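Thread: Modeling a multi-component assembly for a lab meeting

Hi all, long-time lurker, first post. My supervisor asked me to bring a structural picture of a complex we are working on to next week's group meeting, and I have zero experience with this. I have the sequence lines for every component (493 residues in total). Could someone generate the structure of the whole assembly? Inputs are pasted exactly as I received them:
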Amino acid sequence: MSILDKMQRIDRRYIYLAAWIFVLFPLYYPLGLPVPIGRESKAWYNYIEAIPDDSVIIVSMDYGVSGMPELYPMTVATMHHLWDNCLERNWKIIVLAFWNQGPLVFDTLLSQIDPAAKYNVVYGEDWVELGWVPGSETGMAALATDMWGQTPRDYLEDRPLSEYPIMADIRTAEDVDLVISIETGTPGLPEWLRQWNDPFGVPFIVGCIGVSVPGMAPYLASGQLSALLPGLTASGEYELLLSRPGLAVAGLDAVSMSHLLVVLLVLIGNVAYFASRGKEAS
Amino acid sequence: MEIPILITAFCTLLQVIPYYLNIPVIDSASATMREWMLLVVNMAVFVGVISLGQVHGKRIQRRGENWPFSVVLMVFMVLMAIVGFPLESLGLGFKNAQYLFMFNNILNPLGGTMYSILAFFITSAAYRAFRARNWEAAFVLVSGTIVVMSNAPLFTSSLPFLITWKDWIFDVPNTATGRGVMIGAALGAIALAVRVLMGIERGYLRGGGEE
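Re: Modeling a multi-component assembly
Sure thing. I ran the full set together rather than chain by chain. Output:
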């Protein structure tokens, strides 16, 4: 086998090994590359900054543990942003999930951040966690018309919603001003839009994994989706906008190196392909 | 008209009509039916557990292919179900230390690992697939490479125009294609719904499709 053939047929085990090295190296030896801020992270940041005072905001944890490597950093950054402004802007934050592992992921977040200690927000007054709402799209439809009926008790303290001042005037989707869905798939934005945006006009912003981004484009263009935070790179940019570098920024060098490997391999494969074609022709 | 099809048509219309008309009686009936459906969905979880037990139980019994993995699955399914059972007076439930330990130290890393394995597959697949064998493939190669590079600060910090190019790809060809696919799928779904309502599509009744 000639060198050109070998360049076109690299054993996948070597590719896996190279990928492993390219990802691991910057995690041990951070490169500290500059990070240009893209329009998506800027739009996300500006949208949250522009949320009117006294708004009711739902944060929906629509992902499980498999989505954590990509989505958890943006969840942490978004919650910091929301809690940080919660008291000053009188925002009411409701955390829930249509994925059954969502509340457990949020438990992980709460084990790392104590919102009461860090931001002086009071559970039940400034924010509340309703936990998992079963039933996927049907659950969304049911929640839209009767939030108290679908989630009679909260998740963290397991008490009736009537005991929480935050829920006093929040009964249906008409009482909600924004939904922030952080999601990996179904149920996700299309289901939300059908049950909350079309009938009640609730605006949406979505954080999603990289592979879901192309599917979000039509919703963004139509205005049904107000802002999109796509994947880890945008999460890192958002962390920098918040001046709070965290998990995503730490992973950006690894993202860069893994992408560099993809580009190098594509280049090697194509150079060898055209060189061997030229050789055959001559 | 047969009774199952009549029930299907009734239930469907009960969900569709409130979307277009504001009739309090139908709205209320529709909401009640949604609550029934949530109960049915929750019961389906138990059916899933029974089905999983049957499939993997048989595999273990017959020492079928990869049966040790089935043992692992069964053991952890039972273990997590017991530890997470909502009986807090007995120290169970998904807020107890044992459940959280298993979630944080077993399920969480395994889930992350499964997702991260994609990076290896995608790298290998990109190397094999992105080859400019013809004009169409060259088009995919160039646009794909631009999008890959535009997601890496390593490239965008020195070649900022990549972000503009990626934004154009996202906004124009990608959105146009996405819209086409969505509209096509929606029309297909409407056609399927009409066929179901008219009793032409019967596969869901386990009746064997069209007559």
